[in-house]
Specification:
Elements: H1 2-5, H2 8-18, H3 25-33, H4 41-55, H5 61-88, H6 98-121, H7 128-144, H8 153-174, H9 186-194, H10 196-214, H11 218-225, H12 236-251, H13 257-265, H14 274-290, H15 294-307, H16 312-328, H17 333-349, H18 354-366, H19 374-381, H20 388-391, H21 395-404, H22 408-420, H23 422-463, E1 479-480, E2 486-487, H24 497-511, H25 513-529, H26 534-549, H27 562-565, H28 570-578, H29 589-600, H30 616-619
Antiparallel strand pairs: 1-2
Helix pairs in contact: 4-5, 4-6, 5-6, 6-7, 6-8, 7-9, 8-10, 10-11, 10-12, 11-12, 12-13, 12-14, 13-14, 14-15, 14-16, 15-16, 16-17, 17-18, 17-19, 21-22, 21-24, 22-23, 22-24, 23-24, 23-25, 24-25, 26-29
């Protein structure tokens, strides 16, 4: 179509992705010559690559030297053009800068390609292994130098097309040097050196298919994976990645579940190792679960785990399967217990941040436990490794759970954190202990009043000669800490939540006495140094009193709920009150009492005279709304 339309730019882009530039070089050169003479970075990329091909396909050394000079000149011109365009853009990096960054990368890889071509020109059957090792560092760098996963798929497509040109050149140079299969060590050398271009091609295609699948371009993913079948030699790892990406692409489309399951069933697993077999069976279990074949799915997940007990993904997917089953049957807590067991196994095997997602689901399922502790038993029965580092994120949730119930699994996790990462636990544990201490004082005061009432009732009954009345039961209402946490009502004769927290604090201080003392001193210094100055405290209280005094108490704002009325701007409140002829301008009784309390605690003392308590006549007025 580009030829018929005479669109030279489109013709070059198509040739960049499809054509063999060695064979089609005359056509490509004529297309470049017929274009307008305006230089662009993209055009310089094409011209530089043509100069590179001419340099290493020249028939005489003089032609090769001239072509190499042309290559260096075009490469420098392309970089300068890109820098000039970059200079014209804004200083803030935007989307307009991204194509230029990709062009810079293209010129860097063109210069590295010159090193590859120079190595290929000097390669023979005797130094094949040495020259191949030289290329390994460059292609290894190319594996690390990739676009971002979220970059446009066209950027990835252009990079894959460009690198396939280089890998094709490597194949053309190495394949004639492959020793015959019956030669000593011939097959091994062929696999490790001569087919490096095919191996790199398979790797970049698999990576491109992975990115396409992440972009929900499943057709692009599957189409690109079919190109791997045309490669005569690929590594076992690349064959595994190809099949895995193909299965996952089918898994995302509900209408292709049968096709994906067929791909897995038709795969010969004899050449794969244990973790790869476990992943294939995990994928098969995911397909069966999505097809509502629950018995087969459960058996397949069990088989995947038995293939490799240390493969975390199999445990995680099995746990997610039980988690989905529990959502369908929320009354069967045994399914939730199975999910918690699988999540804990996966969390103990993962060595990355993937653990946090599993721990979140574990905590959620444990919050749905019954009085018998059906789900908690799964945690108690777990004997594997506990990822203490990743539990640090959930210290507030663990402390909240621990103050409500003396769960053994929570205590074990907190003890491990206290012994391994005491600084991550100390300050939150100390805050929880202080909150519980205030709740404890209120509970003890209530118990003291209850005992005094019992004694007074007993004395009154004894004075009348009657039998003492039965003792009233303790209040069953939960206690509320200053932080807003509700804890169960304490029971006489049992250990209380503050005792549980004190045990953890004692373990931490016993294990790290000097560190605990240092952190206590830090807390004391913070409380003393961050305490507001008297002037700052006075300003804060005056602002609060002014807001309270100017509250809108007018019928025109009666339709507003009480909390909303306080959100009216202060100036609007003042104007609203000043415009009312019947507003006497007096303060509300609550404001007067607040002023009186403020004057009593005012510092320094010489400022108290300006906040004398209001007269009694000012306190007897009704609040108007």
């Amino acid at each position: 179509m580009a030829k018929n339309e005479g669109n030279k730019e489109l013709l070059l882009e198509c040739a960049w992705r499809l054509a063999d530039w060695n064979q089609e070089r005359p056509m490509i050169e004529s297309a470049l010559d017929s274009m307008t003479p305006v230089a662009t970075p993209r055009r310089r990329v094409f011209e530089t690559y043509l100069a590179l091909l001419a340099a290493y396909s020249a028939k005489t050394p003089e032609e090769a030297a001239v072509a190499k000079k042309t290559f260096a000149k075009l490469c420098d011109e392309g970089v300068q053009l890109s820098l000039r365009k970059w200079y014209y853009l804004s200083e803030t990096v935007t989307q307009a800068h991204y194509p230029l960054l990709q062009t810079f990368q293209q010129f860097v890889e063109l210069q590295e390609t010159q090193q590859i071509f120079a190595s290929l020109a000097q390669t023979n059957a005797q130094n094949l292994d040495t020259r191949s090792a030289e290329l390994k560092s460059i292609v290894g760098t190319w594996r690390d130098r990739l676009p971002n996963l979220w970059d446009d798929i066209n950027v990835w497509s252009d990079l894959v097309a460009w690198r396939q040109h280089v890998f094709s050149a490597i194949n053309k140079a190495y394949l004639p040097l492959v020793p015959p299969p019956n030669a000593p060590g011939g097959q091994q050398n062929a696999s490790s050196f001569a087919y490096r271009g095919f191996h790199e091609t398979a790797w970049i295609i698999n990576r491109f298919a992975h990115v396409a699948r992440k972009h929900n371009l499943n057709e692009v993913c599957i189409t690109s994976l079919t190109k791997i079948y045309t490669l005569p030699n690929i590594e076992i790892q690349e064959a595994f990645l190809k099949l895995r990406e193909q299965a996952k692409a089918h898994y995302q489309n509900p209408s292709e579940l049968a096709s994906g399951l067929e791909v897995i069933d038709n795969t010969n697993l004899m050449y794969f190792n244990g973790p790869q077999k476990a992943e294939f069976f995990t994928l098969k279990g995911m397909f069966l679960a999505k097809l509502k074949l629950h018995d087969e799915a459960n058996q397949t997940f069990n088989l995947a785990v038995s293939m490799d007990m240390s493969f975390p993904k199999a445990w995680a997917e099995w746990g997610e399967y039980h988690d989905r089953m529990f959502k369908e049957n929320p009354t069967d807590l045994n399914i939730a217990a199975n999910a918690v067991g699988c999540y804990l196994q996966a969390a103990g095997l993962y060595k990355s941040a993937k653990v946090r997602r599993l721990l979140v689901r574990t905590l959620w399922l444990l919050s749905l436990d019954d009085a018998a502790g059906t789900i908690a038993k799964a945690f108690d029965n777990y004997k594997g490794e506990i990822p203490t580092w990743y539990w640090i994120t959930f210290v507030p949730q663990l402390l909240l759970t621990y103050t409500k119930t003396d769960a053994r699994y929570v205590r074990n996790i907190l003890v491990k954190i206290a012994k391994t990462y005491p600084q991550a636990l100390f300050f939150q544990l100390r805050t929880t202990r202080d909150d519980l201490q205030q709740a404890k004082l209120r509970w003890l005061a209530g118990e003291k009043m209850r005992q005094q009432a019992i004694m007074r009732a007993a004395d009154a009954a004894a004075a009348k000669g009657e039998a003492p009345p039965p003792e009233p039961e303790s209040s069953s209402q939960p206690l509320v800490t200053p932080g807003g946490t509700q804890i169960p009502a304490p029971i006489q004769g049992q250990r209380q939540p503050w005792d549980w927290v004190d045990d953890i604090m004692a373990i931490l201080k016993t294990a790290f006495p000097l560190l605990a003392l240092s952190m206590e001193m830090i807390v004391d210094q913070m409380s003393s140094r961050f305490k507001p100055q008297p002037d700052e405290d006075i300003y804060r209280l005056i602002s609060a009193l002014l807001s309270d005094a100017l509250q809108v108490r007018d019928p025109c704002f009666a339709f507003l709920p009480s909390p909303v009325a306080y959100l009216v701007p202060r100036s609007q409140q003042y104007v609203a009150r000043a415009a009312l002829p019947n507003d006497d301008g007096l303060l509300a009784p609550s404001t007067n009492s607040n002023i009186a309390r403020f004057a009593e605690s005012l510092q320094p003392p010489h400022t108290k005279v300006r906040f004398a308590p209001p007269a009694a006549s000012e306190q007897n007025f009704s609040t108007r709304y």
